[in-house]
Design a protein that fits this description.
- The protein is globular and about 35 Å long.
- About 30% of the residues lie in helices and about 30% in strands.
- A hairpin with a 2-residue loop joins strand 2 and strand 3.
- The longest helix has 17 residues.
- It has a 7-stranded antiparallel sheet with strand order 1-2-3-7-6-5-4.
- The termini are far apart.
- The protein is of the alpha+beta class.
């Protein structure tokens, strides 16, 4: 009986670790900043003050997520970004960018402090998805 419980506990622990880290949500940009999301390279710097409903997904080699913003802030925000010059080499990222393009998202990059962010933003949806490329 103990062996059975030990086996179940081990299986449960293995299944939970296989899921990876849980996403972290912040209601506002100020809350994300206070939690150190920008300082730790988990969220691009210089987002508009209206940035809210932020989700950060992180593991050992990537930071990704999404955020919402006031559509009135789109032009100023997008002016800071560079249009995506070419698709990433990773086939999964290529597919993601193409699908978001079909859904009306514009693809951008943002270089900050030796890091490059990929951002997929839609003014009419007031949302950007982002991923740290390197």
């Amino acid at each position: 009986m103990r062996l059975r419980h030990a086996a179940c506990a081990a299986l449960l622990a293995l299944s939970l670790t296989a899921c990876g880290p849980r996403p972290v949500d912040h209601a506002t940009l100020a809350a994300a900043q206070a939690a150190g999301a920008i300082d730790h390279g988990l969220l691009p710097d210089g987002l508009p003050p209206s940035t809210a409903l932020i989700r950060i997904e992180r593991d050992a080699d990537r930071a990704a997520g999404y955020f919402h913003f006031s559509s009135g802030d789109y032009a100023v925000m997008a002016a800071r970004f560079a249009p995506l010059a070419q698709l990433p080499a990773d086939p999964a990222l290529q597919t993601w960018v193409k699908r978001k393009d079909l859904a009306g998202y514009e693809a951008y990059t943002l270089a900050q402090g030796g890091r490059t962010w990929l951002l997929l933003c839609a003014q009419n949806k007031g949302r950007c998805y982002y991923r740290l490329l390197g």
